Amino acid sequence: IVIILDFGGQYNQLIARRVRECNVYCEVLPHNTSLERIKELQPKGIIFTGGPASVYAEDSPTIDKGIFELGIPVLGICYGAQLMNYLLGGKVSKAPVREYGKTEVTVNHESKLFKDVSKNTICWMSHTDYIEQFAEGFTISAQSESCPVAAFEKSSQNLYGVQFHPEVVHSQEGTKMINNFLYEVCKCSGDWKMDSFTEQSIKDLKAKIGDKKVLCALSGGVDSSVAAVMISKAVGKQLTCIFVDHGLLRKNEGDEVEKVFTEQFDVNFVRVNAQERFYNKLAGVTDPETKRKIIGEEFIRVFEEEAKKIGTVDFLVQGTIYPDVIESGLGKSAVIKSHHNVGGLPDYVDFKEIIEPLRDLFKDEVRKAGLELGIPERLVFRQPFPGPGLAIRIIGDITEEKIKILQEADAIYREEIANAGLDRSIGQYFAVLTNIRSVGVMGDERTYDYTVALRAVTTTDFMTAEFAEIPWDVLGHISSRIVNEVKHVNRIVYDITGKPPATIEFE
Ligand code: XMP
């Protein structure tokens, strides 16, 4: 195991992902984890994350200096590097030039960290403080034009620090550096693999559940589907899946989910058609957060009613994945949008314990596990679909007519993206029904109809994203199909904003 100590940076999950991609198991722990606990875990290495604070500020997150005496290799990233330097007697201060963005860094090949890395390599910088003077015994191992200490180390003690962020994709050889830290410095064995994980999980679930009853709220999304199938492989029909159709799914989606789960897997599948209830509650509501709240609450209510019919169950399944654990347990980052998982925890469902079979996995690992378990590829690679569904893709108030318009437009968009062979290279793409109506002309008639916005982004982690460059002819074809085939749409626009400053969804 490798431990990642969280100092509040925005890329902490990415660090953990990169480490796992190198086949090394890791966990993110809060920075105030005790040295005792860290020693108990016997990590092969420790990584300090970045963070927004200044090491010299009062109340900035810190750590017991004793961590450097444990004989465990440490890699400090950005704030983590500054903190290491500061604690060991070096000086950190506000940089004369704030560095942000892609920056050329010149590395020293004698450092184990930079084995096989190009002499001049592009790295992602994002810092206002810098290491003005490094601590005794350290040497500089990389520099950039405005950052004299872009990386430093004390190799005799296996202590390494980098000012840039090797974990983000913009650092072109960042993964290589992390790999070097894990294998050249920490001597990890690299035995974290997926097939052994699913096999072991099914065995453990079988032992834990025994002959008891399990209940699962199935959304049809990747996480809840993989969790459900994993449990069904362990205990078959002892599992009941409740699928609440809130009428805000994409075209035909409810039927597709039902088909997969009733035909392919051995579970009790209950579909609740609750469209009317949701539409009534949402009527006239325009605020995005209020929509989310209403849907989340109603979802729980419907689920509870169904669960009551089943009676007492022993276990409730949650499709929690590792990023959720990190975010809810440790994160200090600002809430941009609430309720990223519809459902929450039903208060009144009668169960004894929660099981979270995917708690230790990242999204890409959940997908790998899904394929291992025999879930159809189209479900496993389904792009993320928000819990509140089309409700947050219709700007303003929601009506059945608008849902219908959006479902049709979105279906055409998705069909044509697949036809163009772009469906796997674009991270997420969908149509949005804006609340703009404008004048158009159809035949000889004046129209006054809706504008549909098309959104498509490439992203690795959904925390940052760039707009996808879809060829003009593909966009042109989609545009004419939608305005020709979908009534009440007379204008199509394409969103060319990244995240930040926009978000992926419009609401
Ligand atoms: P944003 O819009 O925040 O989206 O850039 C990032 C990712 O999260 C999804 N998303 C949601 N998922 N409930 C969800 O389950 C929500 O309320 C919600 N809002 C956004 C979004 O689809 C994207 O993948």
TrEMBL record:
Transmembrane segments: none annotated. Pathway: Purine metabolism; GMP biosynthesis; GMP from XMP (L-Gln route): step 1/1. The keyword Oxidoreductase does not apply. InterPro entries: Class_I_gatase-like, GATASE, GMP_synth_C, GMP_synth_GATase, GMP_synthase, GMPS_ATP_PPase_dom, NAD/GMP_synthase, Rossmann-like_a/b/a_fold. It holds the Pfam family GATase. Its EC number is 6.3.5.2. GO terms for cellular component: cytosol. SUPFAM superfamilies: Adenine nucleotide alpha hydrolases-like, Class I glutamine amidotransferase-like, GMP synthetase C-terminal dimerisation domain. The active site is at 78 (nucleophile), 165, 167. GO terms for molecular function: ATP binding; GMP synthase activity. It catalyses: XMP + L-glutamine + ATP + H2O = GMP + L-glutamate + AMP + diphosphate + 2 H(+). Keywords: ATP-binding, Glutamine amidotransferase, GMP biosynthesis, Ligase, Nucleotide-binding, Purine biosynthesis. ATP binds at residues 219-225. Residues 192-382 form the GMPS ATP-PPase domain. Catalyzes the synthesis of GMP from XMP. Homodimer. This is GMP synthase [glutamine-hydrolyzing].
